[in-house]
Amino acid sequence: MNRGLENIVIKGLGAHVPERVLTNDDLSKIVDTSDEWIRTRTGIGERRIAASGEATSDLCVRAAQLAIEDAKIEAKDIDLIILGTLAPDMLTPATAMFVQHKLGIKNIPCFDFGAACSGFQYGLEISRMMLLNPKYKNVLLICGDKLSSVTDWQDRTTCVLFADGAGAVVLSREPGCQCGIVDVLIGSDGEHSDILSIPAGGSREPASEQTIRERKHYWRMDGREVFRLAVQKMGESMVEILERNNLTINDINHVVTHQANIRIMDAIANRLAIPPEKARVTLDKFGNTSASSIIITIDHYRKCNVISQGELILTAGFGAGLTWGSAIIRL
Ligand code: ACO
C-alpha cells in the first residue's frame, strides 16, 4: 500500500505557543461563562494567546526553528516549505513566504494549504508525495494559527475554545530506517462546509462595513453538528487506518487526536476501546490550537519523556470543510 513511501521519517519536531496565558477565569470577565462550564463541557483549563503585533508566521517561525534544530540540520538544508493554516498573515502572499524570509532561506518553493484542523495529516500526505521526488531532501511542514485573530470575543459559544500555537516537522527520506510515517488517510465532505466557517473576508463576501458590523470575519459554528461529525469521521478514519495496516489499538503506544474537546476525545476512546493511559491530552493547557495541536501534544509528551523514539503513534484530526484524517507514525 505504501509502495515507494517507506522510510519517510520525522527527522525533527518543534512546537511553539505564545507566552500570554488566558485562563477560564479571565474569560469569564469578558463573556458570560465560568471555569466550571468550560472545564466540564470542553476540558480546557487555559490557553495561550499571541500578542497583538504577532502574526501566524511569527509563531510558525519559532516552531520551525525548533524543528530544524531538533533535526540537527540548518535552515539552508530545507528545500521545500509547506504550511497549513486557516489564519494566514494576509490573504496573499502565502504565509509560507513570510516564514521562508524570516528563516533566511531563498529560492526554494513554499506554499500554504488549507485543511483547517486536519492540516497535520494533510501536510504529511503532501510532504511524503513531494519526497518521492529526489530533488526534495528536507521538507519543512508547518501547521500554525493565530486563531485569536478570527475568534469573536463576544461569542461565548466559540471564544472559550480557540487558542494560538504552531508546530513543525522536518521530513526526510532515510532508507533502511525502522521509523517513519507508516500510513496516512485523509478525507473530506464539502456538504458540511456551513457548520464551521469564517463567512466574510474572502471573494464571496469581501470585507465591508456591513460584514464587520455583522461580525462575519469570525468563526461561525454549529457546535453540536461539529461534535457529532468529529466523533463519526475521526472514529471511522482511525478504525480504517488500523485495519488496513493489520494493527489493533494494542499495537499503538500513544493516541494523539486533534485537541478540540475532551468529550469528543472520550467518545472516540469509548468507540475504539482506547485505554486512558494511551490517550495524550494537552487541551487543558493549550486549548484548541487547530492543526498544530497534534504536534504541540507530541512535543509536550516527548519533553516529559512519555513519548519516546521508536514508539508507534496513532493521530487523527478533523476540521472545517469538513476535513478529517489519520496517520500512524513510528517516531
Ligand atoms: N459558557 C456558559 N454557557 C454556555 C457557553 C459558555 N461558554 N457556551 C454555550 N453556553 C450555553 C448555551 O447558551 C446553552 O444554554 P441554553 O441551554 O440556555 O440555551 C447551554 O450552554 C448548552 O449549549 P450547547 O451548545 O448545547 O452546549 P454543548 O454541550 O453542545 O457544548 C460545545 C458546546 C462545547 C461548543 C460543543 O458543542 C462542542 O465542543 N462542539 C465541537 C466544537 C469544536 O470542536 N469546534 C472546533 C472544531 S474545528 C477546529 O478545531 C478549528
Pick out its properties:
331 residues; alpha/beta; Peroxisomal Thiolase, Chain A, domain 1; 2 domains; five-stranded mixed beta sheet; four-stranded mixed beta sheet; 11 helices; 32% helix; binds acetyl coenzyme *A
**Assembly state here?**
single chain
For the largest sheet, list the strands in their spatial order.
1-7-6-4-5
Which small-molecule ligands are present, each listed once? acetyl coenzyme *A
Q: Please, what is the average pLDDT?
A: 96
Helix-strand makeup class: alpha/beta
For the termini, the CA-CA separation is: 20 Å
Task: Explain what this protein looks like in three dimensions.
The structure is a single chain. With about 325 residues, the chain is an alpha/beta fold. It has two domains: about 10-175, 3-Layer(aba) Sandwich (Peroxisomal Thiolase, Chain A, domain 1), CATH 3.40.47.10; about 180-330, Peroxisomal Thiolase, Chain A, domain 1 (3-Layer(aba) Sandwich), CATH 3.40.47. It is about 30% helix and about 25% strand. It has eleven helices and 13 strands. The strands form four sheets. Strands 1-7-6-4-5 form a five-stranded mixed β-sheet, with helices on both faces. A four-stranded mixed β-sheet has the order 8-13-12-11, sandwiched between helices. Strand 12 and strand 13 form a beta hairpin. Helix 3 packs across helix 4 (about 95-105) and helix 8 (about 225-245) packs parallel to helix 9. It starts with 7 loop residues before the first strand and ends with a strand. Acetyl coenzyme *A binds near residues 156, 157, 223, 226 and 288. Acetyl coenzyme *A binds near residues 37, 42 and 261.
